[in-house]
Amino acid sequence: MKDALSSSQVNSQVLSVQNLSEQSESSVALAAAAVAESAMTLHKHVMIVRPQSIRGTDRLTNGCKPDGQRD
Amino acid sequence: MNQRAQTQTQIGPTVEIFDKIVAISGPESSGLEPTGFHLENLEVAAISPEAETALAFLKSSATARAEGLDEALEELKAWNGSINQNVKPGTLHFGPRSITINVTQVCNLHCTYCAAGGDGTFGDPIKKISVEKTIPQLKAFLERVPEGRKFHITFLGGEPLLYPEGIALLAEYVKSTAKERSISSSFTVVTNGTLFSPANIELLAKLKANLIISVDGPPELNDRTRPTASGRGVTLKVIEGIELLLQRKSELGTVELSGVFGQQNQDLMAAYEFYSQFSVDHMDFTYDHLETSAEVSEQYTARLLAVASRAFQENGEAGLRKIKTFDRIFELLDKQQQVQNYCGAGKSFFMIDARNQIYTCPWVAGDSKEVVGVGSELWVDKLKAYEAPLTELNQCGSCWARNLCGGGCMFIHKNKTGSKHKVDDNFCNRTRLLIAQGIMYYKIARSGVASAERKAL
Q1: B98-316 adopts what CATH topology?
Q2: pLDDT computed for residue B447 by the predictor
Q3: Complex confidence, ipTM
């Protein structure tokens, strides 16, 4: 979080916070697109961290706490 | 930008809100940098101390500008006004996808906090479900599931493993019927862990069942809260059963240890240490749904935060995410998935009692006013009350955590306030604090902050 950067550098910086080798190309592309779309310099005072694709395990429904998002 | 008045703290992180931006700060002594959260975009950010000051400045509606904050103010405003196209709305349409079945309504334990009539019977003389009556019900539910989708059954009780034959027959029916229509079926068994015989473990492996094992901690705790009817402790038997079960872990789904905490048991750390001796996927520190004391709720929250801190320090994200509450927060933030419904009750989720009556939630089983169908019939008129998103029904519009909470548990709300849609403040305070702390951990985990900051939590 130092100086103001260009939008491409913003992408680079936001993405660099995570080990890219763990990420799918699509999630990287989505994250980059999200930052590019925002057209903001959110890197000096507001640096958004990039979400990571979730693990392969499925979230389960507990007997008393059914998950509303489950399909 | 509308200013929202909402701050919180006593324990855990403090929160300041300006419109859609939330600044979350750890205790001053922690030395942690503040974390930003966009409540609509579900974005988490490292924010500078200047941005935190600027946010407080925005909240104050002051006209003068503090020196050096212009840039931070502009960034905050830009973030506040941005729209993340990747966020998935938490819309949940009607369509049963997850069914809990009371295969028994009898139990070999007599837990102090049992909400099923104190003995697993729900006060009903019927002991087990009729497979013959349940199969047509499941057929009707399965017919509503579109091809290629998922369908989940949870076997509950009473103690479901008192009737393994019923589980086997119902699961076999669901598996074969679902397969014909390319529906993916899965199963969970919620058990007290006292009946892990070789035959029962064989059945669970055959179903590749997920296990939720109810155990409140080490013998000195669990024997007090979860004894037999005669008062005998069973924890050693449960430990033996878990060890036997875990020998076949690779053939099972996920295995979770789940305890109930409230007035009767507040030693979450002892439970954490107990759970940690087993190679399980998750541990769940469930708050007693019937507990209404604000003081107990605060103590529980502080203790769960302490457990989380230890888990994160010792094993990082993997350790933290063994705790189900935090796993959930990470999952939603990673998926960028809003939640409009804390649970799918009356929409995607239903439960069937041993009389084949249908309810929206296991907590209301046995309450005739809550029946929403019988046999293969769902009563549409009664289900209309469940159509709207819970965050809307519960008027969560001013809560910053609404899109990660989903409105909370209707049963807990009603138990405290008398109405499913009038929220229990204790629930909300607990949930907000845990979400706030979860967001702070998420920022650290996803931004690769040095272990020094991790330790400070």
Answers
A1: TIM Barrel (3.20.20)
A2: 84
A3: 0.84
